[in-house]
Amino acid sequence: MRRVARALIDLQALRHNLARVRSLAPASRVMAVIKADAYGHGMLSVAQALEQADGFAVTCVAEALYLRDAGIRHPLLVLQGFADADDLSAIAENGISAVVHEPAQLKLLESTIVKKPVAVWLKVDTGMHRLGFPPADTQWIYRRLSALSTVCGAPTVMTHLAYADDRVDPRTQLQLAQFDQIVATLKVESSIANSAAVLSLPASHRQWVRPGIMLYGSSPFLDGDVVQDGLKPAMVLQAPLIAIKRCQRGDTVGYGGSYTCPETMPIGVAAIGYGDGYPRHAPSGTPVLVADNRAQLVGRVSMDMITIDLRNIKAPKVGDQVIAWGQGLSVDEVARHAGTISYEILCNAGHCVTREDLDLADGGAVSVEQA
Ligand SMILES: *Cc1c(COP(=O)(O)O)cnc(C)c1O
Q: Which of 369, 287, 274, 355 lies closest to 324, judged by CA?
């Protein structure tokens, strides 16, 4: 079923953003993070568009198997690793790498017979306190993993940063110092950097960087600016105006009447709402683009509609496209208004609307509707 609200995915923008990662971290390999259906952009078509990446990271084994079945031959890394012997056998058979972060996974590697050894990334917890072994255990786990016949080669050692979205948070340096103490003695390949660290912490780049959000053209920083970061938004979320009405001074708009018109004014209704992934908590004042000009959302977001103050728009008409975010209006700005982060908004929209891939490589738009 095709919905009126559509997410247009600009494959050229994805490639531009990957090139931006390369220019920032020229000595590192790039493990492009395409978990959560590539942050709502479509996992398979993003993997195909980012053929130049050195590998792809996903959350779970099922995602990695799906990519292999679909013909993706790149190194694949499962960030949560394997949960049981079936998972482990499946990734071994398909040449998929796994993060090992839990003693139970070590036991599985010791007790399971696999067809081919598995490449593993040993995850160390340097302060996130989510996944990973305590730093003090890293040495012996590294040795154990290296000695196992189920493990292929030396583990890559990784950690994840908890505070990098704030460029000046001093705890990031503590995490780096903690990590360096560990890898200094091991002489191994390592990986630290998410998007924020790719952009702001060259010392963290190491052999592999793991960018996610920046590939999609959104800034990882709390106060981020995609233009300053040199990124291009990869998703345009749009829907047409389906009604324009003239409201009088004192009229209220939408559920609960949270917005009162200060004067006689045109109110536009666009066919997109929280059922399409538009954030329900976006308040009056959240920007949208109408026929390429800025306007503001007014009143509450409905399931399938938003209402817009059209006073700034010259000659608006039914059928004009309303852009919720995209080129010219960063999803970061919308997220800040809605009190959330772009990551959440992009994932939600990706689930809800019809996606269409655009490839502007040859000057012409090639549009492929995703299944
Ligand atoms: C999601 C994730 C990333 C990517 O983070 P971004 O902030 O999107 O760049 C990197 N590493 C791990 C372990 C992750 O879970």
A: 287
Catalytic residues: 35, 255
Distances in Å between the Cα of 304 and the Cα atoms of 3, 88, 108, 242, 333 are 10, 43, 47, 11, 21
Ligand 1 pocket by Cβ (under 6 Å): 33, 35, 79, 160, 194-195, 210-213, 220
Q: Which residues neighbour 156 within 8 Å (Cβ) at sequence distance 6 or greater?
A: 119, 120, 121, 122, 188, 189, 190, 191, 207, 208
Predicted local confidence at residue 347, as pLDDT: 96
User: Looking at residues 223-231, what average pLDDT do you find?
Assistant: 94
- Interatomic CA distance for residues 127 and 134, integer angstroms: 9
Closest atom of ligand 1 to CA, residue 210: 10
* Spatial contact of 208 and 31, defined as CB atoms under 8 Å apart: yes
How far away, in angstroms, is 134 Cα from ligand 1 center? 20
Cut 0.90: pTM above it = yes
The string of pLDDT tens digits covering residues 344-355 is 999 999 888 889
pLDDT digits (tens, 9 = 90+) for 324-335: 999 999 999 999
